[in-house]
Design goal:
Blueprint (H helix, E strand, L loop, with lengths): L10 H7 L1 H7 L9 H10 L18 H7 L2 H6 L15 H24 L8 H16 L9 H15 L29 E2 L6 E3 L1 E2 L3 E6 L9 E5 L3 E5 L7 E2 L9 E6 L7 E5 L14 E4 L7 E3 L1 H4 L11 E7 L7 E6 L3 E10 L7 E2 L7 E3 L1 E6 L8 E5 L9 E5 L7 E2 L13 E5 L10 E6 L8 E7 L7 E2 L16 E4 L7 E4 L10 E4 L22 E3 L2 E6 L8 E5 L2 E5 L12 E3 L14 E2 L7 E4 L5 E4 L5 E3 L6 E6 L7 E5 L8 E4 L5 E2 L2 E2 L3
Parallel strand pairs: 1-36
Antiparallel strand pairs: 1-3, 2-28, 4-5, 5-6, 6-7, 8-9, 9-10, 10-11, 12-13, 13-14, 14-15, 14-16, 17-18, 18-19, 19-20, 21-22, 22-23, 23-24, 25-26, 26-27, 29-30, 30-31, 31-32, 33-34, 34-35, 35-36, 37-38, 38-39, 40-41
Helix pairs in contact: 1-2, 2-8, 3-7, 6-7
């Protein structure tokens, strides 16, 4: 099947044809983000994957000026060592390498120690920040920012290549999925999926790319019709519970997905908020809202004039991390958007004509001025009530939980009882679907802005529609220093006290999911009963981004999206000593995110390597299913020795492996169950 939309899955072919295209295709990421801002925030943001936490808290009324200047004062003044941020000069490749190596030394030592203790990747915050900085600078060099429109120009170039491509006439040494001499077209070469024989916190037995959004069709009594969104893989659909997936948006303007909503009055109408809103530098901005009237067969791009940039020289497009449809009037749609996370443009947007036109909500106490992280409607249509959360990771006055009793026209800001006067960071808000009206049960995971939302400030519950809130003190610190990046909450459709939360690898560098069945009084833990560990060797990847229950069934199935794709369990309510049975759903997904620097063998087009986001350096050997090489958590540039092609090299994102560069003299193969990288 021809898959031009998934450039990462056909990256080797594109590099063989024209090496510059692959780099350009990544340029959608933060097109207008100056490199100076990353250098400034690097000093004040010691935690992981932080794209904007150190960008500050200024909030003026002058649109463009606000975004250009917001946080510069706090960036320079909040450096822990008192140093002044580096000037906005463009380093040479040699300088960049030296800076990169120096910034990674401590993390690399930490990773080496972790390797000795069992070899599992431990995603420390410093390593993740270094990875994000490394990701951005490669795309910005030699400029200070990625030019606006780079992705669109790359798509045009790709289309021209498709018309003109002629494969290099080199005969394959072995049989494989890439044929010789070929037909001059683009073909999927994987990974579909990635095999992970090592298991552990990288998931088992397979993985795909980061899943950021999940929506289950409420009219499917079996809970098997599901839509998912990838961080850079587009929207996919299954009608058999994940056994097989179909890509739906390969030809749309953006493959970065932040949120998905199904119209509660017409299950064929699907809305997709594009742009990943996880406060990470390797997140791509979006292209507005996509709407399908026929269950994903056809799509229309909406809101381009509102959400698609560049807005100014420092503000690109929005990332839409939340979207919801009014059950009382399906023409009303609300979306939570982030334009550079803070400032007057970020917040909640409202459409009254099915997404055709959008306007930011307004009036006293309107949820504007920070990233819109959650939007949820009361499930009873007649109540016309909607809740929203603003949650810029660095913490601003606008952050908080909001409520509207008239479908988003007017708003009030709720008081989280035990946090009066306390600043809040990122917020994930959800409603128990079996509750409504004045007794609606709400849950809110709130991160601590003092740590740039790395740590959990608390998990809170309201049983009176947000009037009062109670801290649930026994909740595990489930996002473990990465709350800005992975903090997810899911509530059972009929049991308001049945909640599952998920985030980063826990203190044991393994657990990532925790469950309560009594409304947060008691929780599973990683010692006496680990909800992440399944009844078989199948288990989820860490770094959880989405947790969604199917609405139907006596024991509704639970879907979980993370850095390793998606899994489900059909028995989430089992109790000790029985563990949930996890089902791997990655078999037909092709959403792995490649970093720059894959390698294709000169004399064998069915042999190559590529470094991926949180899924290791992977080995391609002529089949769609690639295999992790067990070199490091996040693989980087790779190289093949042209004189001895069985010798290969891979770099690793700082701190994600025992060394910045690893070597294998066995084609990267697994020998005796062990990695050959060292």
């Amino acid at each position: 099947m021809t898959r031009p939309g998934h450039i990462r899955s056909t990256l080797f072919l594109s590099l063989l044809a024209a090496g510059t295209l692959a780099a350009a295709l990544f340029a959608q990421h933060s097109e207008s983000r100056p490199a100076e801002e990353r250098r400034a925030s690097a000093g004040s943001a010691p935690k992981a994957k932080r794209a904007e936490q150190g960008r500050g808290q200024a909030n003026t009324s002058e649109g463009e000026k606000e975004h250009k200047t917001a946080g510069r004062a706090t960036e320079s003044s909040s450096l822990p060592n008192g140093e002044t941020p580096a000037p906005a000069t463009t380093p040479s490749p040699q300088q960049s390498t030296v800076q990169f190596q120096r910034s990674a030394e401590a993390a690399a030592v930490s990773a080496a120690e972790e390797e000795q203790s069992g070899g599992l990747e431990k995603e420390g915050p410093d390593f993740l920040w270094a990875r994000a900085e490394w990701f951005y600078r490669q795309r910005a060099y030699p400029l200070q920012k990625i030019p606006a429109g780079a992705l669109q120009r790359a798509i045009e170039q790709r289309n021209q290549m498709i018309r003109e491509q002629r494969l290099n006439p080199i005969r394959s040494a072995v049989a494989g999925i890439i044929s010789f001499p070929g037909d001059g077209l683009w073909h999927l070469m994987g990974p579909q999926p990635t095999k992970n024989p090592f298991g552990g916190n990288g998931g088992s037995p397979t993985a795909s790319g980061r899943v950021t959004a999940i929506a289950v069709d409420p009219t499917d009594a079996t809970g098997q019709t599901v839509y998912i969104g990838g961080a850079a893989g587009g929207v996919w659909k299954t009608t058999n519970g994940g056994a097989a997936w179909t890509p739906l948006t390969d030809d749309q303007p953006s493959l970065a997905v932040g949120s998905i909503a199904i119209d509660p009055t017409n299950h064929n109408i699907i809305y997709v908020g594009t742009g990943e809103e996880n406060f990470n530098l390797d997140a791509y901005q979006g292209a507005g809202v996509l709407r399908s009237p026929d269950g994903g067969i056809t799509w229309t791009q909406l809101g381009a004039s509102t959400f698609v940039g560049p807005i100014s020289s420092s503000i690109g497009a929005a990332r839409i991390g939340a979207i919801a449809v009014d059950p009382n009037n399906n023409q009303i749609v609300l979306a939570g958007a982030a334009f550079a996370d803070v400032g007057s443009l970020s917040g909640i947007y409202r459409s009254t004509n099915g997404g055709t036109a959008w306007a930011q909500v307004s009036g006293a106490n309107a949820p504007v001025g920070a990233a819109g992280t959650s939007v949820v409607f009361d499930p009873v249509a007649a109540n016309k009530t909607v809740y929203a959360a603003l949650g810029f990771a660095g913490g601003v006055a606008a952050n908080g939980i909001y409520k509207s009793a008239d479908e988003g026209v007017t708003w009030s800001k709720l008081t989280v009882t035990t946090l009066t006067g306390t600043a809040m960071g990122r917020i994930i808000l959800t409603i128990a679907p079996s509750t409504s009206g004045g007794t609606a049960v709400l849950y809110a995971a709130i991160a601590d802005p003092a740590t740039n939302s790395s740590d959990l400030l608390g998990f809170f519950k309201s049983v009176d529609a947000g009037t009062t809130w109670t801290l649930l003190p026994s909740t595990p610190a489930f996002c473990n220093h990465q709350c800005f990046y992975d903090m997810a909450v899911g509530v059972h459709p009929t049991l308001s006290g049945f909640v599952v939360v998920g985030g980063a690898a826990f203190t044991n560098n393994s657990s990532t999911l925790f469950r309560t069945t009594d409304g947060g009084t008691t929780w599973t833990d990683h010692v006496t009963y680990d909800f992440t560990i399944g009844s078989s060797s199948v288990r989820p990847h860490v770094d959880t981004h989405a947790i969604v229950f199917a609405a139907n069934g006596a024991t509704p199935r639970l879907y979980v999206g993370n850095d390793g794709g998606i899994m489900r369990t059909d028995n989430p309510a089992v109790v000790s000593p029985t563990h949930p049975t996890w089902v791997d759903l990655n078999a037909t997904l092709s959403t792995i995110q490649f970093y720059p620097g894959p390698s294709a063998a000169v004399s064998d087009e069915n042999y190559g390597f590529g470094g991926t986001q949180d899924n290791d350096t992977q080995v391609f050997s002529g089949t769609l299913d690639w295999t992790v090489g067990r070199a490091c958590g996040d693989g980087g540039f790779t190289g093949i020795d042209t004189q001895t092609p069985t010798t290969i090299f891979t770099s690793c994102a700082p701190g994600s492996g025992p060394a910045l560069v690893s070597k294998s003299v066995f084609n990267g193969a697994i020998v005796g169950g062990s990695s050959t990288f060292s």
